[in-house]
Amino acid sequence: MNKDKLKEKLVDELFNELRSDDNKEMFGADGLITDLTARLVKKMLEAEMDEHLGFEHGERGEMRRPNHRNGTSSKTLKSEIGDVKIEVPRDREGSFEPKVVKKHQRKLGKLEEAVISLYARGLSTREIQDHMSELYGSAITPSLVSRITNVVIEDVKAWRNRSLEAIWPIVYLDAIVLPIRDGGVVKRKSMYIAIGINRDGLKEVLGMWIEQTEGANFWREILTQLKARGVEDILIACVDGLKGFPAALEAIFPRTTVQTCIVHMIRNSASYATWSDRKKVCRDLRPIYTAATAEAAELALQAFDERWGHKYPMIVRSWQANWERVIPFLAFAPELRRVIYTTNAIESFNARVRKLVRVRGHFVSDDAALKLVYLAIQNVQKRWTKPLQFWKSAAQQLMLHFDERLPG
Q: What is the pTM of this model?
């Protein structure tokens, strides 16, 4: 096997067997990047040994040749991302001279730069090409970069099928629109993100889905998946007026309270008003969602209708049409209202994704979008180490209203 074919073999098989633990941090001694780097080095060393011996591991010919594999030796390499522990294969004759990690080498060089670029810089094809080309000293095609990065899809599949806690006090559901190529045409597709708040008030991304169908069937599929992964009950679901969601939720989680995002309702209302009227409209909507009770809110809506209904009937109709999903949060004390009246907890995450997407134009496929968003999730979740603001008081309210559904 000549050098060019060896390079092609190395790159082609580089990440075929990579897997990662979704509980890992991104960096550090036991971090995701450190682990991936170690496995990358291992794969390359094994390929070098194949070249040295002239046959692959496990081939029957190995038993009939004088030189063959003879276990491994442990080695720790220093790098900017921390200590990387690797296993260096050995041969019986002791003639194997690895090139990726040379004998007596104790520091990792440019390799981790390529891995970090691949997994932590948002999978920019140009960046990956540049780094991998520098590493291997030869041109690497975009299609090859795509095959290499497809290992992330295996991680995404494992992450999307992981087990979840049985009871979630609050789940936020919202969407971000992404430009994705499909059938030769760039389409605007919705990627839905579900973020749950557990009983300790900590946020966790439960899953992400790219919409392939519309309405109740799509949501029924998502909710069925969550149930299959261990979710038995959701106390409150905060959504952005998602079409078909309430009907699907009633079929899968019939006891869940659905709360429409008030911030989205206000933004939608403002979009109907002229620029000169927007501040006044928003001011007169405020008594509705700050009312002490649902009855008081209804009176405030009537007052708004009397002032603005003749000019902006669509605003009044939108609140009336969503009324049963608008008022549930008014049954709770202010501490819990603050937590469930808006889906901003998920929108801040969506803003991070939009920032990564902005410089890339569009995604070449659904999988490409899933890879980027998954990596963004892994980065942001390591920052979610503290409970939501007001959670202690909000949790007390949840216990009062849902005591029989929150055992222990």
A: 0.68
